[in-house]
Amino acid sequence: xxxxxxxxxxxxxxxxxxxxxxxxxxxxxxxxxxxxxxxxxxxxxxxxxxxxxxxxxxxxxxxxxxxxxxxxxxxxxxxxxxxxxxxxxxxxxxxxxxxxxxxxxxxxxxxxxxxxxxxxxxxxxxxxxxxxxxxxxxxxxxxxxxxxxxxxxxxxxxxxxxxxxxxxxxxxxxxxxxxxxxxxxxxxxxxxxxxxxxxxxxxxxxxxxxxxxxxxxxxxxxxxxxxxxxxxxxxxxxxxxxxxxxxxxxxxxxxxxxxxxxxxxxxxxxxxxxxxxxxxxxxxxxxxxxxxxxxxxxxxxxxxxxxxxxxxxxxxxxxxxxxxxxxxxxxxxxxxxxxxxxxxxxxxxxxxxxxxxxxxxxxxxxxxxxxxxxxxxxxx
Length: 380
Fold this sequence. Notes:
5-stranded antiparallel sheet; Beta-Lactamase; Heat Shock Protein 90; globular; alpha+beta; 380 residues
């Protein structure tokens, strides 16, 4: 394949992944929010600006989710231009003697999904401190979106796990109800036996109704996660992940080594399995030291396939290992990097592994000695 075609294909793939991430935030078709408005108001105050906004950019449109002040010209084109710049964008003379200053909204995967920007009078010269504060406000926007995304995914996955449990309980309860009804209609039984059979039938029907209510309530409050199972080749899936994470790995000066058998296959939901390893790789990158290697390897037996993700980072203390899968847990590791970590990603990963009847656990020799996460999938 010619080099130009490879480059074009890479750019198209990157843009598709950027748009997918933006879609996963579920922010575009929503009303303006007070939290984002507060952040935009801070931008106005920092620059003494006439106008500030938080905007998200798709391939053909710009969605302004917080607007403070009134802008005299259409700045959608400026926002579309700014998402091509990972640094601060400054465009002078945009009309009415004004200057457009934008900080990119950069996801953990290094996708630029929008901007937080201000418009100031041309005679105002922003300081380096003001510029840095605008960047930090952009980080706050992404932090909010990432936390919301993690909570939403975790709730939906746990909701589906509840639905599966309810389904497993309904079958035997329905059987008990039918059998007790038959017992009550058997000829020749005494009144006491008939009464007990009637109570069993009545209570089992009540339990089934309550289980149905749990399912209907969950469905009305959250879109349920549905597993669409098929054969999933783990090697192919992880190779795709390597390509998707290439930019972020380079940005963090990390090397990813995937040593997984070509025949490593499970029966599962490919999208959900990708999410499992996406969360684990996110975690490994987040807490790895620069210029180190992350390894993903496989171990297969007759009954299971185990994939482990090993990093060379801050490690996990024995007490912290017990809190890994606890939402919003506080960790004791004093060398922990200043990264966003509310534990929701690992909870989501474990929930998705549970839905595949698998196991997820972690091991570490302690602080600064890295960590290894293991995912075991049943093969039968």
